């Protein structure tokens, strides 16, 4: 793409509006990466990244992506507490992680996830983890 003065002016206007780089690219008919590169070369003002940083996780401040994502209710707190302003999630040691094994057809209204307590460091309960994970056989066992 040839960056004409008109295209650069439109890019600056879209950037000042706060549009995402992908949307700016769609409106200009170019790729998101072309937008990012030109913004960098023009030295336009930086905007906060939607990717969480270690600082934002420690401070408890949500990044842009987390602010858009609806809160997921956990087994330890009611859904209303998870979405009410000012409420903080329980410490990691007190959180109960539920099994994320899907049950039913995702297109049907009765679709849901298993509510059993998940195993430590696994996304599934004991019964579903047994189905999800297959023990790797030792090659010596196969040779025998």
Quote the beta fraction: under 5%
Rg from alpha-carbon coordinates: 23 Å
**Ends apart, CA distance between termini:** 63 Å
> What is the N-to-C succession of helices and strands?
HHHHHHEEHH
Helix content: 40-55%
Our count of helices gives: 8
Overall pLDDT, averaged? 78
Given the C-alpha coordinates, what overall shape results?
elongated
Class computed from helices, strands and strand pairing: mainly alpha
Q: Report the strand count.
A: 2
Strand order in the sheet with the most strands: 1-2
> Stretches where pLDDT falls below 50 for ≥5 residues?
68-83
Biggest sheet features: 2 strands, antiparallel
Fold and architecture overview:
It is elongated and about 70 Å long. Mean pLDDT is 78; it is low at 68-83. Helices cover 42% and strands 3% of the residues. It has a domain at 5-42. By secondary structure, it is mainly alpha-helical. It has helices spanning 5-17, 21-28, 32-42, 54-59, 64-68, 79-83, 126-132, 139-143; strands at 102-103, 112-113. It contains eight helices and two strands; from the N terminus they run H-H-H-H-H-H-E-E-H-H.
């Amino acid at each position: 793409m040839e960056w004409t003065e008109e295209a650069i002016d439109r890019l600056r206007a879209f950037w000042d509006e706060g549009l995402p780089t992908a949307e700016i690219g769609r409106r200009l008919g170019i790729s998101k990466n072309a937008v990012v590169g030109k913004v960098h070369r023009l030295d336009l003002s930086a905007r906060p990244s939607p990717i969480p940083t270690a600082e934002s996780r420690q401070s408890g401040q949500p990044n842009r992506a987390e602010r858009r994502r609806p809160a997921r209710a956990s087994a330890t707190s009611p859904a209303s507490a998870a979405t009410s302003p000012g409420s903080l999630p329980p410490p990691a040691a007190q959180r109960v992680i539920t099994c994320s094994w899907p049950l039913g057809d995702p297109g049907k209204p009765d679709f849901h996830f298993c509510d059993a307590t998940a195993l430590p460091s696994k996304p599934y309960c004991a019964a579903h983890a047994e189905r999800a994970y297959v023990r790797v056989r030792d090659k010596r066992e196969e040779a025998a």
